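Subject: 3-deoxy-8-phosphooctulonate synthase structure
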Amino acid sequence: MIQFLENIQHKNSKNFFLIAGPCIIEGEDMALRIAEKVIEITNKFEIPYIFKGSFKKANRSRVDSFTSIGEEKSLEILRKVGETFNIPTTTDIHENEHAALAAQYVDVLQIPAFLVRQTDLLIAAAKTGKCVTLKKGQFLSPESMKFAIEKMTDSGNLKTAIIERGNSFGYTDLVVDFRGIPTMKNYAPVILDVTHSLQQPNQSSGVTGGRPDLIETIAKAGIAVGSDGLFIETHPDLSVALSDGANMLRLDLLENLLGKLTRVRESIL
C-alpha cells in the first residue's frame, strides 16, 4: 500500500511501516506535537510513517463518551498535520458519506473492524481512489478477509491493506492469532494493530480497559511473523486522553520500542 503514497518517507528502507497517533484528535497543538515527535523517531530508524487520528468516534459503549471536537475542525487538523510535516495521514470512517468527506483531507481511509462487512461503505471508500485499510473484525476469520479485499478490487481500488486487531475471546478479552498474518498476506499487505489488540472491551463501567504492559510483546511477535506494518496509538499523557487511554502507548516510550522492533526486523530479513 505505501508504494501509492507519494509523501511517505523512507519508502525503500526495507523496514516495517508505522501508523501512529492519538486515538482521536483532541486539538491542533496536541496533534502537531505528537506528529513532530513520532517523525523525529521514525526518521532516526528509517521507518515509513503515517499519522493517525480519528476525526469522530462512532462506536462508543456509552452515550456520554467523547466522540469529537467537531468533524470539520478535526479534519482540518489532520490536513494541517499532513501539510506541515509532508507526511500521509489517515482517519477512520463510519458512514458512506464520510468516505468522500474525509478523502478531501487525508491520504488513507480506514474501515473500522465492526463495519468491515458493510459493502456500501467499502465501495464508497474504494471509489474515492484513496488508499484504504480494512480492519479485520474481531468476529472474522483471516480467510474471510479475502472477500473484503475483493470488494475493493472489484470496485477498482488496488490500494488496500488489512489490519489485524485481535479476536474476541469471551466477552472481555481479545487474543491475536498470529497464524492469520501470513494467511492474510496472500490477499494484501498486513498491519498489526498492537494497541487495539490489547483492549479489554465490555467492562461493567462502559469504558474499555487494556493491557499496555504487553505492547512490546505483541509488537515483537507481529514483526517476527512478517507483519508489513504496525498500528500503535500513542499519547503524551494517558491519564487525560479523551479516548482509549487504557490501551495506548505513552509517547515517551515509543522510541525505545521502535528501536527494539527495528532490530527484530533486521534479524529476519
